[in-house]
Amino acid sequence: MYNREITAYLEKHDYKTFAPKVVLFDMDGVLYDSMPNHATAWEQAMKGYGIRMSAREAYATEGMRGVDTIRTLVKQQQNKDIDEAEAQRMYDEKARVFGLLPTAPVMPGVTELMRKIRQKGLQIGIVTGSAQHTLIKRMAHDFKEFVNENCIVTAYDVQQGKPAPEPYLMGLQKAGNLQPWQGIVVENAPMGVRAGVSANIFTIAVNSGPLPDASLTAEGANLLFKKMTDLKEAWDLLAANFDLS
After folding, report:
1. Per-residue pLDDT, 65
2. Which GO terms describe its molecular function (predicted)?
């Protein structure tokens, strides 16, 4: 099972083997059930700047650097360009509002999945577009049993955020200068899936939000699951196709 999808991936990129050494997780909507809070914070914070941002738009742009999202929205809705410093001030307000909301829980199934991954001898990395220090600090604490802090990529580590491939290529680099066929990406958002696929990494989409499945498969996801617990249950069957030699 899953050998067809892996074979298609190898043929597309002319790779000889699929030998994962690291699984790179997105954060929001994958590790934490945090996207409802983000959607609320985006809508409330941007309203103060005369910017409209619906919950659907928050999900659709999730994974991008916050400053990139803001600069795009300002250009689209107000027809003006703002520099990164101004966008950062607006993003700081979004982060402030987010911090007032209830703490998002760890996504069901994530801890068990990470344990299965480590038992196979694979590393675990995290690749997020977030620049919110409190979230990054919490992430390093919550998953310290499985994740080396040196394998966490945030908005501070890249020049071009998702959907560019740079964040996931950086994830491979931090995991030991690995090649794309030595990694797996786990994503929940179209922009993140596009980033993983653009980096030529086998990309698993988990549709934990309200967007249609097609919004993820259209970006090239190699596999699609409805929730993290489904991926956890499928992991052993998937891993049976890995070259772990």
Report:
1. 83
2. sugar-phosphatase activity
Phi, psi angles (nearest 5°) of residue 83: -85, 170
Distance CA 178, CA 161 (A): 20
* pLDDT higher than threshold 80 for residue 36: yes
Q: In sequence order, what are the beta bridge partners of 205?
A: 187, 224
SS3 10: helix
Considering the chain, what percentage of its residues have pLDDT values greater than 70? 99
Q: Which two tokens stand for residue 151?
A: 């394998």
- Position 132 scores a pLDDT of 66
Task: Calculate helix-pair angle for 66-78, 84-99, nearest 10 degrees.
Answer: 110
Q: Which residue has the tokens 């983000």?
A: 38
Measured distance CA(29)–CA(223) in Å, rounded: 17
State the Cα–Cα distance between residues 215 and 241, nearest whole angstrom.
27
Nearest-CA neighbor of 62 among 211, 214, 223, 212? Answer: 211
pTM: 0.87
**Collapsing DSSP states into helix, strand and coil, what is residue 113?**
helix
**CA nearest neighbour of 26 among 110, 92, 105:** 110
3-state class (DSSP) for residue 245: coil
Has domain 33-98 been given CATH number 1.10.150.240? yes
Predicted pLDDT of residue 20: 98
What are the CA-CA distances from residue 122 to residues 100, 237, 240 (Å)?
36, 16, 13
pLDDT of residue 62: 81
Q: Predicted confidence band at 152 (pLDDT cuts at 50, 70, 90)? A: very high
